[in-house]
């Protein structure tokens, strides 16, 4: 299954929100190859801007490292032409 991950999935885990274990399981399933995950460069930017605004650049770098370590995740560019998105 292909799953698009919005910013709230990552924030849920980072902030240990109410259903963060569900979001964590989703990422673990993606990492195991049970699904392919997609997220936008915009979602990544939103997370990073929060870290940088709080003076926590190191945490932002750790987030990027952790995100890259997850197998089966694709970070998509911003593109207004649907025909150029080949995986969907």
Index terms:
88 residues; alpha/beta; three-stranded parallel sheet; 4 helices; 15% strand; globular
SSE arrangement:
Layout (H helix, E strand, L loop, with lengths): L1 E4 L1 H8 L5 H13 L3 E5 H13 L3 H13 L3 E4 L12
Parallel strand pairs: 1-2, 2-3
Helix pairs in contact: 1-2, 3-4
Q: Give the count of helical stretches.
A: 4
Please state the average pLDDT score.
Answer: 91
Strand fraction band?
5-15%
Shape: globular
Strand element count: 3
Low-confidence stretches: none
Distance from first to last alpha carbon: 11 Å
Provide the succession of SSEs: EHHEHHE
Largest sheet: 3 strands, parallel
Can you offer a commentary on this structure?
This protein has 88 residues and is of the alpha/beta class. It has one domain. It has four helices and three strands, in the order E-H-H-E-H-H-E. The protein has helices at 7-14, 20-32, 41-53, 57-69, and strands at residues 2-5, 36-40, 73-76. A three-stranded parallel sheet has the order 1-2-3. The termini are close together.
Sum this structure up briefly.
This protein is α/β, with parallel strands linked by helices and 88 residues long. The chain contains four helices and three strands, in the order E-H-H-E-H-H-E.
């Amino acid at each position: 299954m292909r799953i698009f991950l919005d910013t709230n999935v990552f924030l849920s885990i980072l902030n240990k929100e109410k259903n963060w274990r569900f979001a964590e399981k989703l990422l673990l399933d993606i990492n195991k190859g049970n699904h392919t995950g997609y997220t936008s460069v915009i979602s990544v930017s939103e997370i990073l801007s929060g870290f940088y605004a709080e003076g926590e650049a190191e945490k932002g770098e750790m987030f990027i490292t952790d995100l890259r370590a997850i197998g089966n995740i694709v970070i998509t560019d911003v593109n207004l032409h649907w025909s150029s998105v080949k995986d969907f």
